[in-house]
Amino acid sequence: MFSNNDMISSRQIKRLLIFDLFGISSLLLPAQLAQTGGGMGIWCILAGIGLALFYLWMLQICLGRAAQDYLEYLAQGFGTFLAKLFYVCYGLICITAGAYTAKLLSELMCESLLDSREFPVALLIVLLLALYGGIAGLEARARVYEIMFWVLVIPLLVMLALCVRQVQAIQWFPIVGHMDEEAATGFWSGAWRCFMAFLPLTFLLFLVPNVKDKKKTGYAAVCALTVSGLALFIIYLILLGIFGSRALMQEQYPIITLMGMVKIPGEFIKRLDALMVGVWFFTLYAMIGSSLYYGVSILRRVFAKSAAEKNAAKKNEAYKKSCYFAAAAAVYVIAYGFYLLPETEHLAGRLFAYIGVPFLMLVPMLSLFLCRGKAHNKGSRVRTNETDHDERKGVDEC
C-alpha cells in the first residue's frame, strides 16, 4: 500500500515541475516569440533558460538554509510581519496564476471540443477536478502525474517526429533577426516572457516540508528545467520551420494547429488535434492543481498562529476542505472575470510582468544577504518539541 504523508521523491518533483513548466510555455510562447522576428526567438529561449537557471541557483541556496520552513527562514532577516506579508503575496500570485491557467484551459477545451457558450460549465468542471486533486494531497497528485508522464510524452514525441519532415530550415533565418534598437527590445521582451513561463520553479520554496531527500531537490529541478527548455526549443524550431514567423504570430495556439495538420499513415484517426489536446489538458490541469494547492498551503501557513494550531488545522479535514472550496471559488470568479473582461486579464498580466516577477526575484535575492540560516539547528529542535512557546523563542533568537 502507498503511504499518505504528503512526502514525495525527487523523481516525482521532476515530473511535477515538467508538467507545470511545459504546458503554458509550449502553448503560448511560440506565437509570442515569432513577433521578435525570425530566428531571434531561438536566442530568447536560451536567454530565458539562462535567467531561470540563475533564479534556480538562488532558490537552491534558500532551500539549503531553510531547514524545514521557508516562512521561518524569511522571518530571520525580514521579521515576522514582513515574512507573513511576503507569504500573502506568494499566495495571491498562486491563486491568480491558477485562475489564468484555468481560463486558458477552459478556452482551449471550448475551441477544440466544445462550444464557446459552454465556457462557464467547462471552467466549473476543470476547477472541480483541481479541487478534488488539491484535497487529495500532494503525494496523490504526484503519483498520478508520475504514471501519466510517459503516457503523454510518447505520443507527443511521435507526433513531433512526424512533423519534422515538413520543416523548411530556411524559415529559421535570419537567425539573429535585424540588428537594430527595435530588435534588441523584442529580444529582451521575448527573453522576459520565457523566464516568466519558467517561474513555477518558485513552488520549490514551499516543497521543503514535503521532500524526502532535500539534497536531490535541486538536481530534479535542473532536470525539469532542462527538459522543458529543450522541448520548447524543439517545438519552436518545428513551428517556425513549418509556418514561418509571419503566419506563426497569427496563430493563437500554433502547437494545437500543428497537431491537426499531422497525417498518420493509414489515417485511422481523423481528429488528431482533439486527441492531442489531452496533452495540454493534463499539463495545464497540473499547473492549476499546483497553484491551488500551494496557494491554500501558503495562506493557511500564514494564518496559523502557532505550531499547535498549525498541526490541529492539518488534522481538521473540514477546515482543510473549506479552505480549498474558498480558494477554488476565488479562482472561478477571477478566471470568469478574465473571460468576460479581457482588459482585466491584460492588466493582470502587466502587473505580474512589472511587479510580480521582480517580487519573486528580489525576495530570494535579498534573503541571501539578510537571512543567513544560523539558527537552523535550534529551529529543528523547536519544531520537534511542537510547542508554541519554543517556536516563538526559536524565531526570536534568529
What can you tell me about this protein's structure?
The model is unreliable at 374-398 (pLDDT under 50). With 398 residues, this protein is an all-alpha fold. It is built from 15 helices and no strands. It is globular and about 55 Å long.
Short description:
Helices cover 77% and strands 0% of the residues.
Shape: globular
Output mean pLDDT. 83
Tally of strands:
0
Strand count, sense and barrel status of the largest sheet are: none
Proportion of beta-strand residues: under 5%
Q: Element order, helices and strands? A: HHHHHHHHHHHHHHH
Q: Name the structural class.
A: mainly alpha
Distance, first to last CA = 41 Å
Q: If you compute it from the alpha carbons, what radius of gyration comes out, rounded to the nearest whole angstrom?
A: 22 Å
Fraction in helix: over 70%
Total helical elements? 15
- pLDDT < 50 stretches: 374-398
Name a few traits of the molecule:
mainly alpha, 15 helices, globular, disordered C terminus
